[in-house]
Amino acid sequence: MTTSSAPTPGHGPVSVSATKTLGSLTVSPLSLGGNVFGWTADVATSFEVLDAFTGAGGNFIDTADAYSVFAPGNKGGESETIIGDWHTARGNRSDLVIATKVGALPERKGLSAANIKAAADESLARLRTDHIDLYYTHYDDESVEVSEIISALDDLVKAGKVREIGASNISPERLQASLEFSEREGLAKYVALQPHYNLVSRDTYEGPLRDIAARHGLGAMPYYGLASGFLTGKYRPGTDVDSARSGKAAAHLATERGRRVLAALDEVAARHNAEQATVALAWLAAQPTVTAPIASARTVAQLPALLALGTLPLTNEDLTLLTNASA
Question: Measured between alpha carbons, how far apart are the two ends of the chain, in Å?
Fold first, then answer.
């Protein structure tokens, strides 16, 4: 991947500056969220965003079998299908690290061994590939023993259908039990964690969950890294934003913490001639255990600010200001 100097905000593509290691995988420092593909980004726009992301050196794409079942008229699998069609058209599958998830699609809910394996085959078909680079359990299913979940995932790894495994939305206790089972039995072990984590939601990861990740060398890929768009700075008192997620984002304006964080983002962004979104993601990337924040772009114009996270050199003063504002 290429290295670039700091970008001019909002102008042209930005090259991703470095790569990170995640188990046996080599990933870009930004993971492109695929939740918008087939939802707020149609097929043509999704292709444009994917082209721009990979053109700038990005290779890490995050999706799920359940994306985007939440959009009216969708049944799930739309995002995987778009990604599969795109990389097939471009002939670049070997350059990509594709992460997807199991357990939240309505007809494939839960983490029984049979369901995990059937869902993986269906994801492989939609993604038009013979392997998933990183396969997450989307939501833990506490009705299933961790031994059954890990054994099923290990079978997929041994079959060559999955390269690495990860977990999202899991309790510290279940994560610890899963890792211990893998170690005890010599089976595939989680290398990745996908927590809800950002400047206005820190206790969703910091604490026992992060401690376990650090102890076992797991890389974290935070989702809602921009708090549904709030941390882009576009939500201000008295403004209306045309976005499917505007309700969630605007709610942070009503909190003292949200207003403090916004002020700190403004200060750091002005200091570096950067965008607030870049600063928010760069703060995340600087946190212990974080490998690559996840952020989605529903237009190509939104990408430069996200990609610039790897080239924004936040100082200790910047990090302290943001951390204190978000406490």
Answer: 35
Tell me the whole-structure pTM to 2 decimals: 0.93
Are 193 and 168 spatial neighbours (Cβ–Cβ below 8 Å)?
yes
> H or E stretch including 294?
strand 294-295
The structure tokens listed for 191 are: 């290398």
Distance separating alpha carbons of residues 266 and 274, to the nearest angstrom? 9
**How buried is residue 123: exposed, middle or buried, by Cβ count under 10 Å (0-12/13-18/19+)?**
buried
The pLDDT of residue 10 is 36
Measure the CA–CA gap between 224 and 54, rounded to whole angstroms: 21
DSSP letter at 274 equals -
CA distance 220 to 55: 24
- Which tokens sit at 100? 């997807």
Contact 138, 102 (CB under 8 A): yes
pLDDT at 317: 98
For the stretch 211-220, pLDDT in tens is 999 999 999 9
Is 117 strand, coil or helix? helix
Grouping H, G, I as helix, E, B as strand and the rest as coil, residue 25 is strand
Q: What is the pLDDT of residues 120-173, one digit of tens each?
A: 999 999 999 999 999 999 999 999 999 999 999 999 999 999 999 999 999 999
Instruction: Quote the tokens at residue 196.
Output: 């809800």
